[in-house]
Write a structure and sequence with these properties.
The complex is a heterodimer of chains A (324) and B (523).
Chain A lengths: L1 H26 L5 H5 L6 H10 L6 H13 L13 H36 L4 H15 L2 H15 L12 E3 L2 E3 L4 H34 L2 H9 L3 H30 L1 H7 L5 H10 L3 H29 L1 H8 L1
Antiparallel strand pairs in A: 1-2
Helix pairs in contact in A: 1-13, 5-6, 5-8, 5-10, 5-13, 6-8, 7-8, 8-10, 8-11, 10-13, 11-12, 12-13, 13-14
Chain B lengths: L8 H8 L6 E7 L14 H7 L7 E3 L5 E3 L2 E6 L5 E6 L13 H11 L13 E8 L2 E6 L6 H4 L8 H6 L12 H4 L7 E7 L3 E6 L11 E8 L3 H9 L5 E3 L6 H5 L4 E16 L21 H10 L2 H8 L5 E2 L23 H10 L6 E8 L6 H14 L2 E8 L1 H9 L5 E6 L7 H8 L19 H12 L3 H18 L2 E14 L2 E2 L14 E2 L1
Parallel strand pairs in B: 1-10, 1-11, 14-15, 14-16
Antiparallel strand pairs in B: 2-3, 4-5, 5-7, 6-7, 8-9, 9-10, 11-17, 12-16, 12-17, 13-17, 18-19
Helix pairs in contact in B: 9-11, 14-15, 15-16
The chains are: A mainly alpha (324), B alpha+beta (523).
């Protein structure tokens, strides 16, 4: 097991290097950082001097090796835009993104799994058809439209929930959390729902499809014939077997939730990593963009690892294989 | 032409509300100031924000005129070129240190250093001398009547504070203490700063000037997405937002308790040409000539534009057409040259035929899509108007971060540019847009098309040095007449300035798009 994890860790370094390389080769097309860093009155000569000082005239390979070399040494560099250390900027934005992603995931699971089970067990019910239709609409509308709609309904018209930002946060160690105050939760609700809608639909449809499949399988029929109580049949025997592929897909999707929270964060001015990334693109803040993409790659690798481990935990057959 | 609307809406009212109870004021804008260091970045979001905290020797009033701030008076030096500033006594920085001429000297050295982005303001300065604690001389290489105006945003730091905190120079690579902390003399002081999230200011009780605002605490939030910003205002979470998109005006006006503040920014939007290009870069039919080198072709392009329709359709009637590179009301505006080429497609076609292009030609038009209000839509409209007279513009648009490098690399046949005169004087666009490109002398740095006229080049130093206002205006008039005659640029219109606030907030909308908390009253 330790070997397995170590192997994954080594692989992740290569994944991150590859991402950094791809990102770096794209940065040249993003624009010119110097014109974004200086004012209109700055002379052409001063701009050139700054470009030289920042090493932007160096060949691509040289800039890339310098970036990765610094990263490996733990030096994440400084933002062109704010001059702050990039490590500090990204670290301060991680809690907001992670909490948003996790709460969105929990909402999608808490609603998606029961809804999936219900629609599988009562395929012809009116409620089932309603749920399927609603979620289809939900998944077809782009995220930012859902976000703006929620903001205008619950923020502007009804005035129940805040329209932007994180509200009241509580500092726990170095972690700025929204989860320990009512204000924090109020601010978290709309963005989490917005971010979770797609996940929710996916989870529900996946559970429904798997559950329908499992319910048709032989061992369920035998169990039914033996008179196993319905509740135990549905939730202990059928659902547990449904969950294996569901966990894989949901887990892999979670990396995407973190990475693509950019849109939700922008709509709700949610101060996470995605918003920071957007601001950085606007200012061609190459150091921040580079580190962000590497961090996101790391999250993907980490999530995949966790999914693999969960797989082992949930499916006894894999454990037996591992022992042998 | 109507004169520039300087939107003094709130100004008069704010006086009457003095003494009202202290209030928390929340506002939002689309860009977070990059730094709290007043010398590190010469950009409007930074200078606008920090003008609430730091102060200069002079400052701009509600109508943009220069008035005393940390200097109580200034006068030209006798026997040499330059200005003597008499400083205000009894002023203290927010940490309690006294303000003296040493701080001005230190701030000058800091702001004119290579690490400072604002150093271009001090290009004409050859020497600075401390005369005594409250007198300081700025010596310039030539007579410079505009110098006090040009340093309105030169903010003074406390020497002792900066040196004690290792912030003697602006941060260029890594941050320093002054990136996140302030110690100014201004009406507000920084309480907390979370870059990109929230910045909180509180009123400075020891401010030397009499406060006409009633804001005790001010919370600034950057909101990049304009729909989110509008929702934040309409839900009451912010009291004021700048700017709002044109299409949201009706939304705000349609609701009780909110108001839209409209004015004209000093920014003139214009089309520029590749004057010095040998040939068109993006033409399908004209390969080895540059038709835009012929003034008749440039004039034809100007006559093709129907600005009244553009105003009605794209700008809801909010723009003022422009005849020159600054709007009326800016010093140096040439009253004698207020006409602009009328919409006249027949005349445009005739001019093209006269120039040897009876069937027109195709060319490349470059435009930004995130820099000016409706910039991309404007260019689309203009392209179809050009096409109607035979000028087939192949439009390409892009974000501004990519756009300036293209212009600097001469990669255009025609391009869109907006210019706001930083000194609020006509000399500014002449220096940056009309003078021949000369990087050594730092002239013509935004004259991408390489427009060059020997007489204009000759007149610029005279304009800079002429002290007599009417003689100076005659020189400026000559430049405007020449560049209109040659149509160096096609000036289009001044960009509208649209802010929105709650009804109970009185504030002043200044034409440079700066927002000053010291003119805010919450009723």
């Amino acid at each position: 097991m330790v070997y397995f994890i170590l192997k994954r860790m080594v692989q992740s370094v290569f994944v991150m290097l590859a991402v950094a390389f791809l990102a770096f080769s794209l940065f040249r097309f993003v624009g010119d950082p110097i014109t974004q860093m200086t004012g209109v009155e700055t002379s052409v000569k001063d701009q050139e001097r700054l470009r030289e000082e920042l090493g932007l005239n160096d060949p691509f390979i040289y800039q890339f090796t310098r970036f990765t070399g610094d990263l490996l040494k733990g030096d994440f560099g400084f933002s062109y835009r704010t001059r702050q250390p990039v490590a500090k900027m990204i670290a301060s934005r991680i809690p907001a993104t992670l909490e948003l992603g996790v709460v969105a995931l929990i909402i999608s699971l808490l609603v998606g799994i029961p809804a999936g089970v219900y629609t599988a067990l009562k395929p012809r019910g009116v409620l089932t058809q309603t749920i399927l239709m609603t979620t289809l609409v939900g998944v077809s509308i782009p995220t930012f439209v859902i976000g703006i709609m929620l903001i205008f309904i619950f923020g502007v018209q009804l005035g129940w929930l805040p329209t932007f930002g994180r509200g009241g946060t509580v500092q726990i160690g170095g972690w700025e959390s929204s989860l320990f105050s009512v204000d924090g939760w109020r601010a978290l609700l709309l963005p989490a729902i917005t971010l979770g809608v797609y996940q929710l639909t996916l989870t529900m449809r996946l559970v429904r499809a798997e559950m329908t499949e499992v319910m048709r399988s032989d061992y369920i029929r035998f169990a039914m014939a033996r008179g196993v109580p319905t509740a135990s049949l549905h939730y202990r025997h059928a659902l547990a077997n449904t969950m294996v592929p569901v966990i894989t897909i949901i887990g892999l999707q979670f990396g995407g939730v973190i990475a693509f929270s950019i849109v939700t964060e922008s709509v709700f001015q949610w101060p996470g990593m995605g918003l920071l990334f957007l601001e950085s693109i606007r200012f061609v803040d190459i150091p921040v963009m580079g580190v962000y993409l590497v961090v996101i790659a790391f999250f993907f690798v980490l999530v995949n690892l966790v999914v693999d481990l969960l797989y082992v935990a949930i499916d006894p057959r894999l454990r037996i294989k591992d022992v042998s | 032409m109507k004169t520039l609307k300087l939107a003094l809406l709130g100004g008069a009212l704010s006086m009457s509300a003095m003494g009202a109870s202290a209030e928390t004021f929340r506002w939002a804008s689309n860009t977070d100031p990059q730094t709290m260091d007043p010398h590190a970045v010469n950009s409007a979001p930074v200078l606008s924000f920090l003008n609430n905290v730091y102060e200069g020797l002079v400052r701009r009033g509600q109508g943009m005129s220069i008035e005393p701030s940390l200097a109580t008076s200034w006068a030209p030096l006798e026997g040499e070129n330059g200005w003597r500033f008499t400083l205000r006594e009894g002023v203290t920085f927010q940490d309690g240190a006294a303000f003296t001429s040493e701080d001005v000297m230190f701030s000058y050295q800091r702001a004119s250093n290579e690490a400072a982005d604002v150093r271009s303001w001090f290009a004409p300065v050859s020497d600075v001398r401390v005369v005594n604690d409250f007198t300081i001389d700025f010596v310039t290489t030539a007579p410079n009547p505009l110098f006090p105006d040009s340093i309105a945003n030169f903010m003074i730091l406390d020497k002792g504070w900066a040196e004690a905190n290792d912030a003697s120079l602006p941060a260029r690579d890594a941050e320093n203490f002054a990136t996140m902390n302030v110690n100014g003399t201004g009406p507000f002081t920084l309480v907390s700063r979370d870059p990109g999230v929230r910045t909180t200011l509180s009123s400075n009780a020891n401010w030397w000037d009499e406060a006409s605002h009633n804001v005790s605490e001010a919370v600034f939030t950057p909101i990049g997405n304009s729909a989110t910003g509008l929702a934040a205002l309409l839900s009451g979470e912010v009291d004021f937002i700048q700017p709002i998109p044109l299409q949201d005006i009706a939304q705000v006006e349609g609701r009780d308790g909110f108001k839209v503040l409209e004015g004209e920014e000093t920014r003139v939007i214009m089309f520029g040409f590749g004057h010095e290009h040998e040939a068109l870069l993006y033409s399908a039919d004209v390969k080895d000539a540059n038709p835009f080198a012929d003034p008749r072709v440039r004039l034809a392009a100007a006559h093709a534009l129907d600005l009244a329709s553009i105003d009605r359709v794209l700008f809801r009637g909010k723009i003022e057409t422009a005849s020159q590179l600054v709007p009326a009301g800016i010093s140096g505006f040439s009253e004698a040259n207020q006409d602009r080429p009328a919409f006249d497609p027949e005349r445009a076609k005739a001019l093209l035929a006269e120039a040897g292009y009876p069937d027109g030609f195709s060319f490349g038009l470059k435009c930004p899509n995130d820099r000016y209000i409706n910039d991309e839509a404007l260019c689309r409209a203009a392209a179809s108007m050009f096409a109607a007279v035979g000028l087939n513009a192949e439009l390409s648009t892009g974000p501004v971060r990519d756009y300036w490098p293209q212009l600097r690399a001469d990669d255009f046949d025609m391009y869109l540019l907006g210019w706001s005169p930083g000194t609020f004087d006509m000399e500014h666009p002449i220096r940056f847009l009309l003078h021949s490109q000369d990087n050594d002398k730092k002239l013509g740095s935004w004259n991408f098309g390489g427009y060059s006229n020997a007489r204009v080049d000759e007149l610029l130093p005279q304009i800079q040095q002429e002290i007599d206002p009417s003689a100076r205006q005659a020189l400026v008039d000559e430049v405007v007449a020449i560049t209109q005659e040659e149509l160096a640029y096609i000036p289009l219109y001044t960009q509208p300035l649209i802010w929105a606030a709650k009804d109970n907030v009185d504030l002043t909308q200044r034409a440079d798009n700066f927002f000053m908390l010291r003119w805010v009253t919450v009723n």
